[in-house]
Amino acid sequence: MRSLGADHVVDYTKEDFTEGDQTYDVIFDTVGKSSFSASMRSLKQGGVHVLGGFGLSQLVRGLLISIFGKKKVTGWVARERKQDLISLKNLIEAGRIGSVIDRRYPLESIVEAHRYAEQGHKKGNVAITIEHDDSAQQHAASDGSSSEPPSRR
Ligand SMILES: NC(=O)c1ccc[n+]([C@@H]2O[C@H](COP(=O)([O-])OP(=O)(O)OC[C@H]3O[C@@H](n4cnc5c(N)ncnc54)[C@H](OP(=O)(O)O)[C@@H]3O)[C@@H](O)[C@H]2O)c1
């Protein structure tokens, strides 16, 4: 986490960030495993609790708190849009954000990749690599036949 730019890191296996008097402007629960009530208590007045993963109960409680309280709860589900991926690619190439890749699997091993990811302990992301098929592209170019667009790594 420090290598990604965090100034202060709390190891959740050793310390519960909701215990003690420290309060926060923003709590972003990226894995959806923190207690909702405890997180709300650790939020400053006017603070925002962002939910990466949420259920119906959190959604309803969050809505009521946001309407009637002085704290806000928000969350969203990412849409898989090409323009968003291009924006991310540009930010990565500009060095403005980084990513952590835990493991890479070829497309043929996608079942194994899912099994690993579903254990819930991946560090960052699991990537699927797709080989660029030069021979298919050359063949299509030389005989003028149409083919599926080649996949890219
Ligand atoms: N809103 C959206 O659009 C969206 C999109 C994708 C996913 N999600 C949701 O995001 C959540 C996370 O999914 P994911 O696949 O990225 O991650 P994941 O595989 O569920 O999370 C794994 C990581 O979380 C750490 N972790 C587990 N409990 C933690 C805790 N209490 N505090 C801090 N870290 C903890 C694990 O560390 P250890 O190995 O040490 O346990 C591991 O590094 C899921 O609930 C998923 O539904 C939402």
| Biggest sheet layout | 3 strands, parallel
Number of domains: 2
How does the overall form come out from the CA principal axes?
elongated
- How would you name the CATH homologous superfamily of the largest domain? NAD(P)-binding Rossmann-like Domain
Rg over CA atoms: 21 Å
Q: Got a strand count?
A: 5
The share of residues in extended strands comes to 15-25%
| SSE run | EHEHEHEHEH
Overall mean pLDDT:
88
Q: Helical content, roughly? A: 25-40%
CATH topology of the largest domain: Rossmann fold
**Which CATH class of the largest domain?**
Alpha Beta
Total helix count? 5
Bound molecules: NADP nicotinamide-adenine-dinucleotide phosphate
Secondary-structure-based class equals alpha/beta
The residue ranges in which pLDDT falls below 50 over 5 or more consecutive positions are 145-153
For the record, give the distance between the C-alpha atoms at the N and C termini, rounded to a whole number.
Answer: 27 Å
Strand order of the largest sheet: 1-2-3
CATH architecture of the largest domain: 3-Layer(aba) Sandwich
